[in-house]
């Protein structure tokens, strides 16, 4: 009897716990601007859609800016919303909110989307996105048949393209809206990945999870988010037969996770719960474009709108300060004297932020920058120290290198952008490739994949990326090299996950045996 039961136990272990047959659950972490945000004022019973909400973007831009703006406490350098104003990334855990970027698909059918507080806190609100395809054919048809349809599409597209925060040039943009379909394609976010996994038997809310967050904040103010994320990873692990999680992050989600790996969790915790991290278009060391957001703002491609109009909100976000090229990553990706902003013959580089903010008449900006610099800039020479890191990014797409103003255009008018040769259109290549400077770690298997001509959003739907992830999540984890020389059971971690389960199950089995 005993050998039989033991065999059963061993078999059970290899199937359920060792990842031999089972699949790894996936958790998605979005970038800047890619979590849907909801808000309520005072005692309102409902959360209302705030971001990205086409209706508001098109018709009430100034109120959107006001609602998205943060105030700063100048003694602490931390930020807060107006009193009685709550802003939240609702539906934490549910990946469906990350399928696309807008909360209301059909602004005519449902112009004022809202949800209750309990819906916001729960995981259930976001339904399946079946009418997500091409945004509801009825509406598309309506657009095509109507006179001036392109005009409507244009404006709607403009609203929708808000997400493409540091997005493509107006020219490309016009090309995109020429085919409305492409515009819809562009509002898809993790859709292709979610659908690809679903076709392979994955289920949203079971083994695909989403971890949206208030992207306005930098890691120093994401304490609560990190707590929820840690719990989400642990829960997802245990509800999926103790199969380790694969984290897939886009853009800003990557440095957000780098901070999590380095400052929130331990190496043991990572070994227990995380199989791999897949980084898509990661701005490890920021992006030049954020400096422009601080100076003159960015219209995020909304036609006829000047960057200045959106600047109050963009300037107030700790993330924007956090993603400014930093002099203290220890990597010297940007030289001290290299210009980021030029005004006539004067230039500002990474070492001149104090002057820059002084000259902008925006000393709070410097305070904000100092705070994130002190509290949240990750030491990039410190690797994430997960066991596998797979990095995917576009290259050879013209990407802002620096910005040129004249004495009269500084700082309120849009500058001339000088592209540097390389990047993915949003993030500079040196930042995308900063992982190459991570202090090498014999514990991390790093692979990287640069795709010429692919932009910051393309990596989300590139077939090569999707296939890689699909293979990864079904593959068996290689035996982990021990982190400590002292470890006497080097392969213990590759089987059966956590240490305590083995003795516990053994006790149960032995207990059974003795009663039989
Ligand atoms: C700023 O932060 C300090 C320290 O936490 C706190 O005492 C003060 O009330 C805050 N001020 C505002 C305006 O919130
Ligand atoms: C598409 O939108 C129309 C108009 O709002 C609505 O009546 C219809 O049910 C929607 N179709 C689907 C498949 O959701
Ligand atoms: C690194 O990871 C990739 C993808 O999972 C895998 O194909 C490769 O064999 C790994 N390399 C090592 C040395 O484990």
From TrEMBL:
Keywords: Signal. It holds the Pfam family LCAT. Transmembrane segments: none annotated. One of its GO terms (biological process) is lipid metabolic process. Residues 1-20 form the signal peptide. InterPro entries: AB_hydrolase_fold (IPR029058), LACT/PDAT_acylTrfase (IPR003386). One of its GO terms (molecular function) is O-acyltransferase activity. This is Uncharacterized protein. It comes from Littorina saxatilis.
């Amino acid at each position: 009897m005993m050998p039989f039961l033991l065999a059963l136990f061993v078999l059970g272990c290899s199937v359920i716990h060792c990842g031999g047959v089972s699949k790894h659950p996936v958790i998605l972490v979005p970038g800047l601007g890619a979590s849907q945000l909801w808000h309520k004022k005072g005692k309102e019973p409902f959360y209302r859609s705030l971001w990205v909400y086409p209706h508001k973007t098109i018709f009430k831009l100034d109120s959107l800016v006001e609602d998205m703006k943060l105030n700063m406490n100048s003694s602490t350098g931390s930020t807060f919303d107006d009193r009685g104003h709550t802003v939240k990334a609702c539906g934490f855990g549910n990946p469906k909110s990350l399928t696309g970027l807008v909360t209301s698909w059909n602004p005519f059918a449902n112009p004022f989307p809202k949800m209750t507080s309990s819906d916001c806190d729960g995981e259930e609100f976001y339904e399946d996105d079946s009418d997500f395809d091409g945004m509801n054919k009825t509406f598309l048809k309506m657009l095509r048949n109507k006179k001036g349809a392109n005009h409507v599409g244009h404006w709607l597209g403009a609203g929708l393209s808000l997400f493409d925060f540091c997005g493509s040039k107006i020219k490309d943009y016009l090309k995109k809206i020429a085919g409305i379909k492409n515009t819809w394609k562009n509002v898809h976010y993790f859709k292709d990945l979610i659908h690809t996994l679903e076709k392979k038997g994955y289920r949203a809310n079971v083994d695909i999870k989403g971890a949206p967050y208030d992207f306005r904040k930098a890691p120093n103010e994401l304490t609560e988010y990190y707590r929820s994320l840690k719990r989400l990873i642990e829960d997802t692990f245990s509800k999926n037969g103790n199969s380790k999680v694969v984290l897939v992050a886009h853009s800003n989600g990557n440095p957000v996770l780098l901070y999590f790996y380095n400052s929130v969790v331990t190496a043991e915790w990572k070994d227990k719960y995380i199989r791999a991290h897949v980084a898509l278009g990661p701005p490890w060391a920021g992006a030049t474009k954020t400096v422009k957001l601080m100076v003159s703002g960015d219209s995020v491609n909304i036609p006829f709108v000047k960057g200045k109009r959106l600047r109050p909100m963009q300037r107030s976000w700790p993330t924007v300060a956090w993603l400014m090229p930093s002099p203290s990553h220890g990597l010297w990706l940007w030289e001290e004297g290299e210009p980021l902003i030029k005004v006539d013959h004067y230039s500002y580089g990474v070492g001149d932020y104090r002057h820059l903010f002084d000259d902008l008449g925006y000393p709070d900006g410097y305070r904000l920058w100092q705070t994130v610099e002190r509290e949240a800039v990750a030491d990039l020479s410190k690797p994430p120290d997960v066991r596998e890191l797979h990095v995917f990014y576009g290259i050879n797409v013209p990407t802002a290198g620096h910005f040129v103003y004249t004495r009269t255009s500084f700082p309120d008018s849009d500058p001339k952008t000088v592209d540097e040769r390389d990047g993915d259109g949003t993030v500079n290549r040196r930042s995308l490739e900063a992982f190459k400077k991570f202090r090498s770690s014999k514990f991390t298997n790093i692979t990287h994949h640069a795709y010429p001509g692919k932009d910051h959003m393309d990596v989300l739907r590139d077939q090569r990326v999707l296939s890689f992830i699909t293979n990864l999540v079904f593959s068996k984890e290689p035996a982990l090299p021990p982190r400590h020389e002292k470890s006497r059971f080097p392969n213990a971690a590759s089987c059966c996950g956590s240490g305590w389960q083995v003795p516990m199950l053994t006790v149960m089995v032995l207990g059974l045996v003795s009663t039989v």
